[in-house]
């Protein structure tokens, strides 16, 4: 038999309190035993645990550049960690843009952006040097990124 309390899966009545189960966060202590277990450091209240990770919040830098038919590096590998990266082919004509990671871009590069296409990396974010090339002169790449020290 399974001992899961189905009420743990219902919406929380108080959004400021995150219950410990089934979310694997520390349990909120029982006030009756908080003086004994809490004093020994065995219980950490769930409402005082810092469950946020600062690098999950992005401070965006946005750039737009004109791209020709020669590969150019547009973003260096970060000193810290990149936690968000987005591209948009902002070309007004039918130029295709090609993005390459850690090597010069070619028209055979893996990431192809047709006009108006948007790509967003916000969970697993590439940390590489980034290069771009256009299928025709006058392409426009708009991109945003965020890094944090680390």
Strand/helix succession: HEEEEEEEE
Biggest sheet architecture: 4 strands, antiparallel
How is the quaternary structure best described?
Answer: single chain
Fraction of residues in β-strands: 25-35%
Q: Which CATH C-level class of the largest domain is it?
A: Mainly Beta
User: In DSSP terms, counting alpha (H) and pi (I) runs of 4 or more, how many helices?
Assistant: 1
Q: Based on DSSP secondary structure assignment, what is the total number of beta strands?
A: 8
Radius of gyration: 24 Å
User: What would the CATH topology of the largest domain be?
Assistant: Jelly Rolls
Helix content: under 10%
- Coarse structural class: mainly beta
Question: Low-confidence parts lasting 5 or more residues at pLDDT below 50?
Answer: none
How many domains? The number is 2
Overall CATH architecture of the largest domain: Sandwich
- Arithmetic mean pLDDT: 79
Shape: globular
CA distance, first residue to last residue = 46 Å
**What strand order characterises the main sheet?**
1-8-3-6
Secondary structure layout:
Blueprint: H1 34-37, E1 61-67, E2 72-75, E3 81-89, E4 97-101, E5 111-113, E6 118-121, E7 130-134, E8 139-148
Antiparallel strand pairs: 1-8, 2-7, 3-6, 3-8, 4-5, 4-7
